[in-house]
Design brief:
Shape: globular
Radius of gyration: 17 Å
Number of helices: 9
CATH superfamily: HUPs
Strand content: 5-15%
Oligomer: single chain
Structural class: alpha/beta
Number of strands: 5
Helix content: 25-40%
CATH architecture: 3-Layer(aba) Sandwich
CATH class: Alpha Beta
Length: 229
């Protein structure tokens, strides 16, 4: 049974991929060079896909920098050293307008061509509550749209399902699942503002949440060992 997995190269999407494999799906990985401020995450996505012997991994080129509106696609400073209270307030400047809608649309198109009815995405509402396109209500709405807008669904074939295996998990719980399913987190990259060599900044929201998650399961983030020793 095939599935298209949205793979950014980060901790969450890599875990979602591992879960799909563990559940018996044949994953097809989809990543994007969308004009983000660095390509480190794409290198990570390639490493992760290779580690799971993915049959096909496509990287699509689109240019969301033409629109900007985010610290990830425009020359806006990435927020650093924010408290947990600050992270939980409002929609952060690292939100990329309509990004998951765009990514899921591409995933849907590829799934229809592959004649598969499943998509896996590593969205999570607990650690990224400020991102409107990570909520279950949004995923359910997109799934409904997918089953109205595609030839396959209109012809009465099996309905499309969008799987969100991490949606209600804490970062620690996500890491525990990933470890159980043999994710090598030293291959991943979660930082919004890494160095040219890929070293995390350890100060952005994503880095802080990641390190906190590893500490809660009683271990250090393997990227710290990778870059500090």
């Amino acid at each position: 049974m095939k599935t298209v997995v949205l793979l950014s190269g980060g901790l969450d999407s890599s875990t979602a991929l591992a879960i799909a494999v563990n559940e018996g799906y044949e994953p097809y990985a989809l990543s994007f060079h969308y004009g983000q401020r660095h390509k480190v995450e794409l290198d990570a996505a390639k490493r992760v896909a290779k580690s799971f012997n993915i049959k096909e991994h496509i990287i699509v080129d689109i240019d969301l920098r033409r629109f900007g509106g985010s610290a990830l696609t425009e020359n806006i400073d990435v927020p650093k050293e924010r408290s947990e209270d600050q992270m939980e307030t409002g929609i952060p400047i690292t939100y990329v307008p309509a990004r998951n809608t765009i990514f899921l649309s591409y995933a849907l198109a590829w799934a229809e061509v592959l004649d598969c009815r499943h998509i896996h995405i590593g969205v999570n509402v607990l650690d990224y509550s400020g991102y409107p396109d990570c909520r279950l209500e949004y995923i359910e709405a997109f799934e409904k749209m997918a089953n109205l807008a595609t030839k396959a669904s209109v012809e009465g074939k099996e309905k499309f399902s969008i799987h969100t295996p991490l949606i209600n998990l804490t970062k620690a719980e996500i890491i525990q699942k990933g470890i159980a399913f043999n994710v090598d987190y030293s291959l991943t990259s979660s930082c919004y503002d890494p160095s040219s060599k890929g070293e995390p900044c350890y100060q952005c929201d994503s880095c802080q949440l990641r390190v906190k998650g590893f500490l809660e399961v009683g271990m250090d983030d393997p990227l710290i060992k990778k870059y500090k020793e």
